[in-house]
Amino acid sequence: MITVPVFDIQGKEVEQMKIDEAVLGGKVKPALLKQALVMYHANKRQGTVATKSRGMVAGSTRKLYKQKGTGNARMGPIRTPTRRGGGVTFAKTNRDFRQDMPKKQRRLARDSAVLAKLQSEDVVVVNQLAFESPKTKNFARILQNLKIDRSCLVAIEEYNASLYKSVRNIPRVDSLPVVQLNAGDICTRKKLLFTKAALEKLLHNSVAEKPAEN
User: Fold this and answer.
1) Does residue 204 have a pLDDT over 50?
2) What is the C-alpha separation between 3 and 19, in angstroms, rounded?
3) Which of 1, 56, 83, 92 could join 52 via S-S bond, C-beta 3.0 to 4.6 A?
4) Strand pairing class (191-195; 173-177)
5) Model-level pTM greater than 0.70?
6) Binning pLDDT at 50, 70 and 90, where does residue 190 land?
7) Which residues are CB-contacts of 41 (< 8 A; sequence separation ≥ 6)?
8) Domains, the chain, ordered by start
9) In degrees to the nearest 10, what's the CA dihedral of 104, 109, 114, 117?
10) Nearest-5° Cα angle at 187, 19 to 110
11) Helix (H, G, I), strand (E, B), or coil: what is residue 126?
């Protein structure tokens, strides 16, 4: 069992939570995390870079001058890649770099990433985050009270517009509803901040998604 303290927004410990590692897979799976991270970064690539090949460049296909007898080096058409303004050799074209993983593997990778953060004591749990109106200064003060001064991912129970707007202007800090958590976003941030309700929802969903043993 892993014991995690629960703080209030002032940074004072108010209670403790006990988390069973078996709910999150029992152990960290490095190979699965690696596969999930490769997919995460590959899916962020746009793949829209393109250059013109010799077939795309405007110009005649006629040979500039005859092969022999001129005293000059042999020369092909004006669109040849060896001439200025010609096409590009091995021109780049639009590519789709996207990768995919089965849903169960993505969930296992997410749980493994959360477990890794728990084991390294990089998970912070706060009893609640309530914002009636967006206020970046207030959320920055909460991070300071919780001693979070590195990159951080804030996991909340469900989307909250005021909280999202309070977080978005803070560098290296992002927020996601717990149902959208993924291994890539978790592993690319140093700290993982959960509301108590969000962590309970994640653990409940992990138990529900776990296949029944025969």
Assistant:
1) yes
2) 6
3) 56
4) unpaired
5) yes
6) very high
7) 184
8) 2-46+99-209 (3.40.1370.10), 50-93 (no CATH)
9) 170
10) 50
11) strand
